[in-house]
Write the structure tokens for this entry.
Amino acid sequence: MAGRLDLRNEFWFVTMAAPDFPNPNCTRLEFAMNGPANRNLVFAADLGGTHLRVALIDEEGRIHAQRKERTPRDTDAAGVVRALVEAARSCASEKGVNSSLIGGASIVVPGTVSKDNRTVLQVPNLPSLDNIALKPILEGQLGWPVVLENDANAAAIGEMWLGAARGHRSVICITLGTGVGGGIILDGELWRGADGSAGEIGHTSVDPFVGPRCKCGNRGCLEVFASATAIVRMTREELANHPESVLLSEGLTAKRVFNAGRDEGDQLALDVFKRMGTYLGVGVANLINLLNPEIIVIGGGVVNGWKLFERVMRQEVASRAFPLTAERVRIVPSESGDNAGLLGAARLAFDDRARQDLQSPPKVTRKQT
């Protein structure tokens, strides 16, 4: 591939050369717009606690248009819906994509979704969406069939389709972002549980007695130790004990903590990631003992600090998980990065459309006489 996406921009489009297409001077996006009329695209949206990422994706997982913006936080559900609809229309129109080429939409959210995939039940980091029937609302405004799913479930599907879990059928995906999510695939099938809420790995308890209170109401959840929010909180808690730290200035973020540890060897930053890795290792060991997966893929923004927490995480796993399963399982960082959820969302939309096509009666054309 002759080019690549520039992820530094807030808004970008695919401009890679496509020598495998009929015209070697044509970009993939231009070919998609001017090529065969039957090209299929879906709109995928990954609604995170911090960022809203959207894209137009084809059946081979190629991203044709992509956008990233801040998630509307200080608003009601109507504001979130409005942001999704505007992002979809902008994504389709700014490069002249005919809406008839878009076969559906898939929206993934950082929380639990009803088993019928119609309603957002609970989103600790976006409480305005709690108990909102998002699927029919968006179908009414977009005019496309909509799939609604948990974001970590979608990330797991994305990694199994085109990422680090390719070729595996027993997969756990842990996403470390504003919160901590989880997706579980058993024997090639997404495991949603009896009520659709399976995989809430971030809300398993790893320090139930003295751990901090989580937004879900529990105490000592993995999320309060292994998320980007937790990185910032743990750093603030220890600032007074590290007067030499470069992190004493204002504007503390998880990215700043990571940069301080990686680039400057800041002891406070290193200690925070070591603590984070310890609790993550406890959570991962529990998953290994419980489900015996082939592979555990760890993604989300916090995974950028992989080298700062990997060693202590693996130490905890080795000391707590059963030796045979701990030695067998692969624990790896995501290959799809921020796009894992979008790719999984797209795969879900294509699969849903295929099911709908199978259920629809064939069209009968009356022969003209």
Residues 209 and 220 are 7 Å apart (CA to CA). The chain has a mean pLDDT of 87. The chain has two domains: 11-154, 164-335.
